[in-house]
Structure formats: C-alpha cells, structure tokens
Amino acid sequence: MRYLTALICLSGLFAGPAPAQQGEPAEPFFRVEVVLFAHADGRSDRRQETELEDFSSLVDPLRRARAMAAEAAWLEAQQQDEEILPDPEDSLAVLERIDALESGSGDISGDIGDDISDDISDETEVQAPTFPESFLQQEQLSPTMANAWRRLSDSASHLPLGWRAWYQPLSRERVPPRVRLHDDEIIRLQWLDPARVFPDSPGRPLASSFDLSALLPEADYRLDGSFRLRLRQFMHVELDLSWREPLEPGFGPLDREFLETAAYEVHRLVQSRTVRSDRLEYFDSALFGVLVLIQPWEPTEAADSRTD
C-alpha cells in the first residue's frame, strides 16, 4: 500500500528521459508548443449544456509524462525491495580469471576480453541519430515561447492558463491523432473505471488485467478540448476548445443524479487554418486565446554544427 501511495504522489512529476527512437524516421519530426491564455476582460455569449463532452480518450502529453514517471517510481521501488544479489559462482569465476591474467597463465579470450573489445568497438562505431519520443510533454518551453509566457504573465489584459510542448511526426500519408489541451481548473472528477479495474471474464485472475492508472480519477477541466497538427497541401492546425462554467448543482436525496451539476455554460472556440513553421501563430475568441509555435526537429549534432 505504501508503494501505491508513493506512486500516486509521484504521478504529478514530469517523466525522466523517455525511451527514444533510433534509425531513420519514416516521417519528419516537428516540435509543437502551445500556450493557453484568457482575456482578463473577456466576454462572450455562452450556451447552456447539461452534458460535458469527454476528451479523456485523446492523446494527452502531460498525462503520458506523469504515467511514465509513476511507472518508473513503481519499478524502482520493486527493485529496491528485491535487492537481487550476484550469483556466488559467477563472482568466483571472475576472480579466477583475474588471477590467471595477473600470473600470466591466462588470456583475455573469455568474457573479460569480449567486454574490452565491445568497449573499443562502441567507441569507433558511428552512432545513429536518436529521435524524440512522440506526444510526450517536454520539461520546458523554447526561448521564444518562454518569452511569450512571461509577457502574458506581466500583462494586465491576459492570464496564462497552461502550456504544452511535444514532438510528433508529420506526413501527408497519415492523419495524426488529436492532442488534448486543458487548463488546471478541474470542474468534475470521475473515479474508478470498473471496466479497467476488474477482469472482464469470470475466473480470470485480477492481476492479469489490473490497470493501476484506473485508480486515478479522470478529470474534466474548465478549458478543455483538442488540437491537431496535420499536413495537407500545407501545414494545418485544427482547434476545438470549450470553456465550461458549472452552474449551481441541484439539491435533493443522496443520489448521484441530484448531486451532479445541473448544467454548464459553454463557450467554444473552433478554428482551422494553414500555419507556417518557425512563426508564432495566434488563435483567439472573445474569451480566451491560443499561441502556437511549430519548429522542425533536427538531431543535436546537426544543430550544434549549424550553430558553429
């Protein structure tokens, strides 16, 4: 139980270095950065809705990073508990090999020699470029977007709400998934998904289908929706974001339908247009706005040589 508690606490952290892809990518990679902000004096007509649109099935870079951090913490805790000790016979074999080398009666054709030759070959082998993990939240904004965030924070007319930064491949042959964007203002929590927590067939062991992330709640946010960068003839951004304000909940018996919010006032921003890379793009409505920066990704070695 103490590991479960630690896992849930650590799920809010950013992930460490993500598993990377090596080799030549089938599609070019781009770094995508998005900043969400509200207008301080924003006004807009809003329509009333009784149901919230569910965005939990979309790709969420921040949730992925938190899940990876939680999984890493869980595995580390398990390894610390097991404390796997080396095999005594293996240790004795290594000592005997070292004694033979020191006395001059042995050679290095065994494992030790293999290790040395492997080290030498590793130094001379040309390393393939390492590609970033797709749709995973990055730890910081680029200088351009970090400066935009600071200017929004210092402005009396705007309120920064959150940001996302991730890498993704892009080509005309494949339509990329929609990415979830949201602020930090939670308006509803949904706990425990029985379909993920419990086995779906009688007699099936719980451990074979148990999903620890199902114990964490699914959240609906005040500003929530989707973003998609796709390539048609030109690069294109599709935005579908909703600002939802809950109305006063109904009162009645201790039944779920009475305790839920009766309705929501919803303001929606739906825009789709052509964009260019290496240029700050601006989308907005009367209530809130979005800044977008898209940059081609290049390996670190290529970036360093171009700078020099």
Overview of this protein structure:
- The chain is an alpha+beta fold and 308 residues long.
- It contains 9 helices and 13 strands.
- Helix 1 packs antiparallel against helix 2.
- It is extended and about 85 Å long.
- The chain starts with a helix and ends with a helix.
- The N terminus is likely disordered.
Q: Can you count the beta strands?
A: 13
- Secondary structure class reads alpha+beta
For the record, the count of structural domains works out to: 1
- Which range does the strand content fall in? 25-35%
Number of helices: 9
> Radius of gyration, rounded?
26 Å
Distance between the termini: 53 Å
Q: What oligomeric state do these chains adopt?
A: single chain
Keywords:
5-stranded antiparallel sheet; 9 helices; 30% helix; extended; disordered N terminus
